[in-house]
Design goal:
The protein is an alpha/beta fold. The chain has one domain. Helix content is 34%, strand content 19%. A 7-stranded mixed sheet has the order 1-2-4-3-5-6-7, sandwiched between helices. This is DUF1643 domain-containing protein.
């Protein structure tokens, strides 16, 4: 994986204070910077704070500023939930579109015009990694992201099959704002809410896949 900020060269260079045991956290990210359109991609982001194998998968709308060293507002909110829950050792983040987009309103157009064969291959690999590794998967791509999700479900059979397969064996989590009395046809985005808390969203996902 390509790392930003030369983090791949850091390896084990950490502070060592005599007789002090410190908590540790690690991060890594998979970027692509050689696309012909000049737009940066991020296919995968990991933040790890535990030694175990419990992983929270997260699917957001599109990447922004987060990398191996720094989390953005959305990934930080979900990350705080994951750490504070004490149920997970790591967080794996992927996006419906890997392309960096400054204005979410242009997301679908950007994805249609610039999502190429390399994006398809690499994003598919990233999605399979998360779906196969994660114990639970947070869906938090918002209303604009839902339109892209609906399009991919319709146009890409492998994408649709991946969700349908794991719907039977994974717990998909969505914001508790998506309750039975307030059921918009999309999972809320972290940026539109305060502290994140989640509920089982498998029934919602089943409906969105129909």
């Amino acid at each position: 994986m390509k790392k930003s900020r030369k983090i791949s060269k850091l390896k084990e260079k950490k502070a060592d204070i005599k007789n002090v045991k410190m908590d540790k956290a690690l991060g890594q990210a998979w970027f692509r910077t050689d696309a012909e359109d000049g737009n940066k991609r991020r296919y995968f982001l990991e933040r790890r704070w535990g030694k175990g194998s419990k992983v929270l998968g997260v699917i957001l709308m599109h990447p922004s500023d987060a990398d191996a060293a720094i989390l953005d507002q959305s990934t930080n909110k979900v990350g705080l939930f994951a750490v504070n829950s004490d149920d997970y050792d790591a967080m794996y983040v992927i996006n419906l579109s890997p392309i960096f987009v400054k204005d979410s309103k242009s997301l679908i157009k950007m994805d249609e015009e610039h999502f190429d064969d390399t994006d398809y291959k690499d994003q598919k690999k990233a999605f399979k990694t998360v779906f196969n590794s994660a114990d639970d998967i947070v869906l938090a791509w918002g209303e604009v992201g839902q339109r892209l999700f609906d399009k991919k479900i319709k146009d890409d059979k492998d994408f649709s099959k991946l969700f349908k397969k794991h719907l039977k064996e994974k717990q998909f989590l969505i914001s508790d704002a998506n309750d039975s009395e307030n059921n918009p046809r999309f999972p809320y985005h972290p940026a539109s809410h305060g502290d994140m808390s989640f509920i089982n969203g498998n029934d919602f996902v089943k409906e969105w896949l129909e």
